[in-house]
Amino acid sequence: MRRALQVKPGVIRPVGAEPSMWRPEQLGNVVATRVLTLRIGEVESSVDLVVGQPVRSPNAEEGEPWWCPIRFGVGPDKLWASAGEDSLQALILALELARKLLPFYAKQAGGTILLDPGDTDVITPNAKLMEFYGEAAGEALKAIRQADRLLRDSEDPALTGIRQELGRLVSKYGDK
Q: How many whole angstroms separate alpha carbon 156 and alpha carbon 126?
């Protein structure tokens, strides 16, 4: 039986014969933490998400990845790490890993996990962001209605286009 070969610049090895890749075994310097809420039925408890500083192997060669270690208090008690081309990509991928794994392990425990009770995401506070955008849109619409009322009776030809656009916006969004 022939074994497939994997080719890298200057190196030819049978597939599966790759040396084991270095990974961090400790969290190291903590660069970020977030306290989340794990809710199982009516019981709520705090869960910490802890992010370590992205690191490389002490003997890293060119092209070897950066790793960003993370640990969280739901699911298996272990250190997770994501690899990236550079430290920023490793950090982003570690946060994405947490975004996927935290809800998965919370569900396995029979619960849900969120940053705030109204949120839908453990990393980005969507509910607060949506509330902010809603308030901002409401204020903008209020100003558009007021401008529409002021311009509605204007005979100035220079304002015709603005008056028509404001009227279109008010009729589209005015009563929502």
A: 44
